[in-house]
Write a structure and sequence with these properties.
single chain; alpha/beta; 11 helices; about 35% helix; three-stranded mixed sheet; seven-stranded mixed sheet; globular
Amino acid sequence: MGQSEMSSMPSVKIYVVGFDRFGAPPSDIFVPIQAGKSKSLDQFEVLGDNTGDNISDLNAIYAEMTAMYWVWKNAQKTDYVGFFHYRRYLDFSGRPPIGNSDYSFSDANLVTRVRYGWLDENIRSSVAKHDIIAPPLDEIGNPQDGYKSSTSLYEQYLCYHVGRDIDLVLEETKKKSDNPREIDEAFQSHYATFNHMYVMKWDLFEEYMEWAFSILEAVRPQIALSEPIYGKGQLQSRALGFLGERLFNVFLTIKKKQGVDVAHVSRVFGYAAVSTKKKLNLRLAVSKFFTRLFEYKKIRRGVYVKAFGISFTYYKPY
């Protein structure tokens, strides 16, 4: 490739998001980033989402979107920006996408990188052909009949998550739209792309972040996140991340109607070399230690105290 051709290639950064495992094919384009780093005991020696303007503390409910937020607010602007997961990537080989299925790899050696188009020059030339690159559009299976039929993006959310949450998002999205009918159409589609992965032009990325977070932050105070169903370790604790994944599909639907060039490519599942270099977040570890030893909270008509494994509840008399 000549010097002039190289200089005409777009700048691209693809952030590979992880929480407790990290790895990416060797490349100047792939950048591992630890999401939720501010509240993680393990501080891996990779980029984190906890510096500058960040929402790292909200990772439990936003999942990978805290990394997206960090890049939006802090990273150096590139022509294209994208997000993969530590075990999910997109195929840049040029093969037609396969729906409802993934390719796979066991390591990120040169053969694998050539097979899936992960050499830097190929990534740059591949993304330059489109405005947005996303996973394949999969037909949404209906879990209510054992996936024998399809269902809508909206109905599928009701099957797996808290229905009131998607209703709040639907209402807020319509408020921000000049065409509420197209929002309904997007939520009623029987095809969707999952895993919240993409590569897109930076200006579209900024537009998406501004739009998505304006909706999610508007509904966050209305979601009963203190309820047990959203508690730590529960599936629904990542509610805003799940909702963001659905909003990404709505964003794609809107952009396609506006003439934005969206390409769908296959997903690739596998693990690159995993980073094990980490250090302990000592301040957080000490805080958690003393929290387990001593707990104090106000309850209705009284207080609850726990110290060294012994608990005591005091109720104020009527």
